[in-house]
Amino acid sequence: MAKCILCTFLLVVLGTSSLSAAGELPPSKLSHSCQLAPNQKRSLRGPIPRPMQLIIDNRFNEDQKKEISRAAASWNKVGLQIAGQNFFDILYGDIPLSIANMTNFDCGGQFGGSTFTYVVNVTSDKLWTSMKLGEDGTPGFTSPAEVHSCTNPISFEFSQQVVRIYSSIVIFTQLQTIVLHELGHALGLNHSCDGDPHDASADYISCQKISPNHPYHLAVMYPSLMKRRPNTPFPEQKLTPTANDISRLECLYGPK
Ligand SMILES: [Zn+2]
Questions:
Q1: Backbone dihedral region of 208: left (phi > 0), alpha (psi from -120 to 50 degrees) or beta?
Q2: Of 48, 60, 73, 74, which has fewest CB within 10 angstroms of its CB?
Q3: pTM for the full predicted model
Q4: Is 90 exceeded by the pLDDT of residue 160?
């Protein structure tokens, strides 16, 4: 999971967790049209097999479901633009408790299939705490969401995947933004910059080195979000994938 030392109490840290040991995506898996900036070379995970059924937990209320499906629809628009097809079939369902409450994500086990992704509403404080999902190494931080993904070591496609939203700490007007970010991970994007300064290198720039108006900072896949925009009472929102998010996705889904 990405660690974030940029974070202050104003920020929401948007976590991800990849369980795969598949390693770096080989260049042969990238599209011909891929134009990845040298300092974002390590910012891709792997493509999803399509069509991917996105199963939204019936435990979300109707308003929450609308926000989540809007986030998925935003990515579908990008899918049509760059690959001529939707990324997600948006569905609602009763997600088995064994998956909703899973505390041990073992890629050798079964918690999802290759053709669907669960979006789970976690309401149990105890579960979130026991899983240490909210902890990124920065004291006092609780992440509102996480993605668990396994990758097929040969095809580099995701084999099973669960997005978990700890909805009780999510400001409703940021739900769509947070889900948009997590679904970006689910589609194979790492953060637009490296939130962990210990890992950062020439091929994956540190978030500490970019200014607030830099395209990587404005991207949906920037690793944190402000609970309040500066000098306003309004939470920061990012409701549309930016050019940087889209060009990186094109590397995964453009013509091979
Ligand atoms: Zn993230």
A1: alpha
A2: 73
A3: 0.89
A4: no
pLDDT for 153 beyond 60: yes
**In angstroms, what is the span from residue 127 Cα to ligand 1's centroid?**
20
E strands in 85-196: 88-93, 116-122, 145-151, 158-166
For ligand 1, the distance from its centroid to the CA atom of residue 15, given in whole angstroms, is 4
Query: pLDDT tens-digit profile of 188-213?
Result: 999 999 887 777 788 899 999 999 99
How far away, in angstroms, is 184 Cα from ligand 1 center?
A: 8
The residues whose Cβ lies within 5 A of ligand 1, an ion, are 14, 16
- Extents of the domains making up the chain: 11-22+31-251
What are the DSSP E strand ranges found in 85-237?
Answer: 88-93, 116-122, 145-151, 158-166, 224-226
CA–CA distance, 105 with 205 (Å, rounded to integer): 29
Cβ atoms 238, 220 nearer than 8 A: yes
Distance 182 CA to ligand 1 centre (A): 6
- Assigned token pair, 80: 């049509």
Class of domain 11-22+31-251: alpha beta
| Other beta carbons within 10 Å of 1 | 18
Write out pLDDT tens, residues 174-191.
999 999 999 999 999 999
**What is the distance in A from the centroid of ligand 1 to the CA of 123?**
20
**Separation of CA 236 and ligand 1 centre (Å):** 15
Calculate mean pLDDT across residues 11-37.
Answer: 68
Compute, in angstroms, the gap from residue 125 CA to the centroid of ligand 1.
Answer: 21
Distance 224 CA to ligand 1 centre (A): 7
User: How many angstroms separate the alpha carbon of residue 16 from the centre of ligand 1?
Assistant: 5
- Is pLDDT of 120 > 80? yes
